C-alpha cells in the first residue's frame, strides 16, 4: 500500500470555499487522480492519502464521507475531527 501526500486539488470554481473537489494530486510526485479514483483506492485499502498542515506540519489523513442522498466525497481527518484542510490547498497546475 502506498502512502501519498496530496499537495494540490482541482475544483470547478477556484475561488469557491465549498465546491466539490474533482481531482487531487502532487506535482512533485507527478500524479493527479480524480476524486472517484482516490475514493475507490481508499475504500479498497490499496493506498492512503494525507495532507500536511503548512502551519504546524501535522498530518491529516484523507477519508471518504458518505452522506445519505449525496455523492461520496473526500475530507481530511485529524485530531479526532473531520476538517477542510483539502479546500485550503493550491489549485493543481493544468497538464
> How many β-strands, per DSSP?
9
Domain module count: 1
Amino-to-carboxy terminus distance: 26 Å
Number of helical stretches of at least 4 residues = 1
Largest sheet: 5 strands, mixed
Instruction: Give the overall silhouette.
Output: globular
Low-confidence stretches: none
Calculate the mean pLDDT score and round it.
88
User: What is the spatial order of strands in the main beta sheet?
Assistant: 1-5-6-7-8
Radius of gyration, in angstroms, nearest whole number = 13 Å
* Share of residues in helices: 10-25%
Structural class: mainly beta
Please provide a brief summary of the model.
This protein has one domain. Helices cover 11% and strands 41% of the residues. The protein has one helix at residues 35-44, and strands at 2-5, 8-10, 23-26, 31-34, 47-52, 59-65, 73-78, 81-83, 90-91.
Features of the shown structure:
single chain, 95 residues, mainly beta, five-stranded mixed β-sheet, four-stranded mixed β-sheet, 11% helix
What does this structure look like?
It comes from Variovorax paradoxus. This is DUF3892 domain-containing protein. InterPro entries: DUF3892. It holds the Pfam family DUF3892. The protein is mainly β and about 100 residues long. It has 1 helix and 9 strands. A hairpin with a 7-residue loop joins strand 6 (about 60-65) and strand 7. The longest helix is centred in the middle third of the chain and has 10 residues, at about 35-45.
Amino acid at each position: 500500500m502506498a502512502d501519498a501526500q496530496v499537495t494540490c486539488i482541482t475544483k470547478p470554481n477556484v475561488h469557491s470555499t465549498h465546491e466539490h473537489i474533482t481531482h487531487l494530486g502532487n506535482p512533485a510526485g507527478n500524479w493527479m487522480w480524480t476524486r472517484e479514483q482516490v475514493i475507490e483506492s481508499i475504500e479498497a485499502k490499496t493506498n492512503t492519502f494525507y495532507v500536511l498542515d503548512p502551519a504546524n506540519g501535522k498530518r491529516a489523513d484523507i477519508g471518504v464521507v458518505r452522506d445519505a442522498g449525496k455523492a461520496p466525497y473526500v475530507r481530511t481527518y485529524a485530531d479526532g475531527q473531520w476538517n477542510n484542510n483539502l479546500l485550503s490547498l493550491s489549485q493543481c497546475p493544468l497538464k
